Every structure is written in structure tokens, then in C-alpha cells.
Automatic annotation (TrEMBL):
<keyword id="KW-0288">FMN</keyword>
<dbReference type="InterPro" id="IPR002563">
    <property type="entry name" value="Flavin_Rdtase-like_dom"/>
</dbReference>
<feature type="domain" description="Flavin reductase like">
    <location>
        <begin position="20"/>
        <end position="174"/>
    </location>
</feature>
<comment type="similarity">
    <text>Belongs to the flavoredoxin family.</text>
</comment>
<dbReference type="Pfam" id="PF01613">
    <property type="entry name" value="Flavin_Reduct"/>
</dbReference>
<keyword id="KW-0285">Flavoprotein</keyword>
<dbReference type="InterPro" id="IPR012349">
    <property type="entry name" value="Split_barrel_FMN-bd"/>
</dbReference>
<protein>
    <submittedName>
        <fullName>Flavin reductase family protein</fullName>
    </submittedName>
</protein>
Length: 203
């Protein structure tokens, strides 16, 4: 099968064709604050490293059907800061609960019972149990589309990184200790429990 996307009819299931094939996706558990200081946290799997020098991460909001921005984007536009908490396997239940459509003034930290800790240089709280946390400031928002399901990509300058000492072996993050999870299509998730190595060719 080949989906020619110049044929409008083939776009009907494009969401599932995108999230089912682009897998596994890392999960950014993004904590922010609004302009009154109210805390927010939500998971985003349209997430990756966008640049190393300077260090920049990207997180994309898929616009809701009512076309109102999600709290994360609103808060970033208002207060410019966030923490990207890395999701280890033991955090999946809390991470998943935090994606509920809570009213803006309700903190998912309190509603879900996520233990928080102060961040080093940004106002948003960090997840105490997250072993790696990237403290970020908003660089820019690239609006790909304001339509429902359109993307608004938040580019985030990394200003500091917390790494639990237990995760570091010889200065490198040990994947077995970090034990991250990934997002697949539908309701499926992947673990990182079966790793293998490949040596790059020297040409
Ligand atoms: C694992 C997971 C990954 C998600 N990834 C995204 C994403 O990349 N983009 C997005 O707009 N919503 C994503 N969502 C849905 C948001 O988390 C959800 O809309 C949430 O209510 C947004 O919260 P906020 O309004 O506090 O930002 C994801 C949900 C889950 C459980």
C-alpha cells in the first residue's frame, strides 16, 4: 500500500499512520508554571533533541480540536521556562495520569500525587523521582499550523541538566539504570530493557 497524500481521502487516518510508524518516541514530561505560579505537568512524545551546540530540545503541541492551546504552551508563552523530566519505567503510571484534561488552575502534581522538588535555576518544579531533568527556557515557538491537529513546535534552550549520580557510570548515563520508556501508536508503550550494540563503520 502507498498513501498518496495529495489525495485528500488518504489523510483521514494520517495521525495513526504517523504515530504508529514513528516509534518509539521518547517522552518529555514537561513541567511549567503559569503567570500566577500555579504548577503544571504533562507528557509530550513529539519530542527530540533539535540542536547540540547550542543545546536545544523540541516539544510539539498537537492542537486540540477546540483549537485552544494546551496549558504547557500557554505557560511557556507566559513564563518562558520549563523542566523536561525524563520518564523512567517506574514513573509511567503517574506520567500517564498527568495527561488528564485537568482545568488550568489544577496542578497535576497535586492531583496525581507526583512528588516535586525545586529546580536549580528555573521556577517550574522538577519531578523528584526523575533521574534526568533538563531545565529549559523558551527559545521560540514555530507554528506549523493553527488548525486542529496542527503542530506548534516549542524550541527550548537547555540551561542546566540534573543527573542523578546513581545513573552515571564513568561520566555517561547508563541506559539500564535510567530505564526509559517510549511511546508507540495507540495506547502502547515500549521499554528499553533489551538493548543491543552496533559499532559504526570507520570509513
Ligand atoms: C505518553 C503521552 C504522550 C503525549 N504526547 C503528546 C504530544 O506530543 N503532543 C500533544 O499535544 N499532546 C500529547 N499528549 C497529550 C497531552 O499530554 C494532553 O493533551 C495533556 O492534557 C496536555 O496537558 P497540558 O494542557 O497541561 O499541557 C500525550 C499524552 C501521553 C499520555
Amino acid at each position: 500500500m502507498y498513501l498518496d497524500l495529495t489525495d485528500e481521502g488518504n489523510k483521514i487516518n494520517i495521525y495513526s499512520q504517523l504515530v504508529g510508524g514513528i516509534t518509539p518516541r521518547p517522552i518529555a514530561w514537561v513541567s511549567t508554571v503559569d503567570s500566577d505560579g500555579a504548577a503544571n505537568i504533562a507528557p509530550y512524545s513529539f519530542f527530540t533533541v533539535a540542536s547540540v551546540n547550542p543545546p536545544v530540545l523540541s516539544v510539539t503541541q498537537v492542537n486540540p480540536s477546540d483549537n485552544k492551546n494546551k496549558d504547557t504552551l500557554n505557560n511557556l508563552l507566559a513564563t518562558k521556562e520549563c523542566v523536561i523530566n525524563v520518564v523512567s519505567h517506574e514513573l509511567v503510571e503517574q506520567m500517564n495520569q498527568s495527561c488528564g484534561n485537568y482545568p488550568s488552575q489544577v496542578s497535576e502534581f497535586a492531583a496525581v500525587g507526583i512528588e516535586a522538588t525545586a529546580s536549580q535555576v528555573v521556577k517550574p518544579l522538577s519531578v523528584a523521582a526523575a533521574k534526568v531533568r533538563y531545565e529549559c527556557r523558551l527559545r521560540e515557538v514555530i507554528t506549523i499550523s493553527k488548525q486542529p491537529a496542527g503542530g506548534q513546535m516549542m524550541l527550548l534552550d537547555v540551561v542546566g541538566v540534573f543527573i542523578d549520580d546513581n545513573v552515571l557510570i564513568d561520566g555517561y548515563i547508563d541506559p539500564d539504570v535510567l530505564n526509559t520508556v517510549g511511546k508507540m501508536g495507540g495506547n502502547e508503550f515500549a521499554t528499553t530493557q533489551q538493548l543491543f550494540s552496533l559499532i559504526r563503520p570507520e570509513l
